[in-house]
Design goal:
Layout (H helix, E strand, L loop, with lengths): L5 H19 L7 H4 L3 E3 L2 E3 L5 E7 L2 E6 L6 E6 L7 H11 L2 E5 L6 E7 L5 E7 L5 E8 L3 H17 L5
Antiparallel strand pairs: 1-2, 3-4, 4-5, 5-9, 6-7, 7-8, 8-9
Length: about 170
């Protein structure tokens, strides 16, 4: 068998070291935005979240689901029915179902929360854009809502900063 030269041996060792480093360096320390491009939906650019997957992208809606709590999902939809406010819809729902109306915690956001009395402590959160025809609907456990709050804030901020329909 023929012996490798010094240059070939050096490149071989460098290649082995790079492959080993790729397996040994934890990927969690690298920001997710570097690894995954933003999700473009309409005129929105949505940063990926490590705990949330996109499960459906349609022209008028996009659906996000939690990796940690599979019951938790956020749907963002365009061109919904804007004749009623989120508070109107939630209070009407709570009259018929066993739930409690709670005002959304951010006064700058037109939103409302329905909390259902059950073992799972489920809630429904409705948010609509004041400037654009966009609804956001979260369904899932109360505790899992914190995973979606940064995403909701990002989308709401982009929508409210634009003067055009997305």
């Amino acid at each position: 068998m023929k012996s490798l030269g010094k240059t070939k041996t050096a490149f071989l060792l460098l290649g082995v070291a790079l492959v080993a480093a790729a397996f040994l360096v934890p990927t969690k320390e690298t920001p997710i935005s570097i690894l995954t491009p933003d999700i473009i939906w309409g005129q929105l650019s949505i940063s990926p979240r490590p705990d949330i997957n996109v499960t459906g992208v349609h022209p008028n809606s996009i659906v996000f689901v939690s990796n940690i709590e599979p019951q938790a999902r956020l749907t963002i939809a365009k061109n919904g029915n804007f004749s009623k406010t989120p508070k109107d819809i939630i209070t009407s729902l709570c009259r018929n179902d066993r739930c409690t109306y709670v005002a959304y915690n951010n006064p700058d956001v037109d939103g409302a929360i329905a909390r259902f009395q059950s073992d799972d402590d489920l809630q429904l959160v409705l948010i609509r854009s004041q400037k654009e025809q966009v609804w956001m609907e979260y369904k899932g456990p109360t505790a899992a809502f914190v995973f979606f709050e940064p995403l909701i804030s990002e989308v709401h901020q982009q929508i409210e900063s634009k003067n055009q329909v997305i």
